Amino acid sequence: MRFSALRVLREGLTGNKGWTPHWRDPQPKAEYDAIIIGGGGHGLSTAYYLAKEHGLTNVAVLEKGYIGGGNVGRNTTIVRANYGLPGNSEFYSHSLKLWEGLEEDLNYNVMHSQRGQLMLCHSDGQRDAFARRGNQMIAQGDDAELLDREGVRRLVPYLDFDNTRFPIYGGLMHARGGTARHDAVAWGYARGADQRGVDLIQQCEVTGIDIENGVVKGVQTTRGAIRAKKVGVVVAGRSSQVAAMAGMRLPIESHVLQAFVTEGLKPVIDHVISFGMGHFYISQSDKGGLVFGGDLDFYSSYASRGNLPMAEHVMEAGMTLMPMIGKAKVLRSWGGIMDMTPDGSPIIDKTETEGLFLNCGWCYGGFKAVPGSGNSFAHLMATGNHHAPAAKYRLDRFRTGVDLMDEEATGSQHNLH
Length: 417
What we know:
11 helices
């Protein structure tokens, strides 16, 4: 089944009776060439690119819940490539290029909207840092525009420019940044992987990883043992728990990150706006709701819900930035379980167990990385070689201290990233 304007029109006129399921619901086979543990955005995109780019179709994605029920459906949907450090900047630039061709590639509307992201600066030092970052972005072929105070005012006049604590000095505009529909991204990759023969196994929790003489042999699940030559662990905030099944202790802490959405409003915010000093970011969805978030809850947790003090802090930061949102009613909130590394950058690497691969540590950057992460991880699993855009995401950097990527310059404390 392919989507087209004609197909949508035809179904609309005939009661939408001709649509078929997006993917199959197969029973797990006894053995696969590769198993992906985790049916979120990164796991699904990995399976898709294994099939599309490398011809590996005897692949299973194992998800303990339902497809798209984890972090890929629990985020603020921001897509951007405005990182500054070598290692991160190349990767996110690569990922953004994949985003820009994703809908055509998948034949699926993921509602990718390049509405632009504006990062505000509130001091001379921060403005200088943005100028350096913008030049780095331009030098590698991405876009950036440094705006002064009046340039920001012309773009977003509704902000509180004279806030006593955080006056707005200017901003860095990343026009190719924007948002996408998080659920649609998961569904699009799931559909694309299924069409290429990948089995998507839902309600299938992995309870053990089988290793013999240093070589992975498969996994134990709630639906029986499944053998495989290669196993990829892509489970976000559950990375430490699943890696422990293979006898590994990861440099990961799991923290809760909350997000919020308001009632539907008329169009008022055209861009994604990041208020760094208050750690607040906001955009408006296609349905009119204001989607926003802020800091982590600052304690380790596996609960997909947050606490009220942090909710209060996020609302306070939003009111400081744009008092006009104070009359909007918050309809709901949710929490994602963030897998936080000491330097705030991810891990895409082989492990010491032959055939066992690891993809984790995405901190706040998981959603925007979905295409690049799956593309690079699939390359690693298929070829055994690190993909160039993700070549610096090695696990051993935390043992040696070499090539750490502390993008925010906040040191090695997990929750500060």
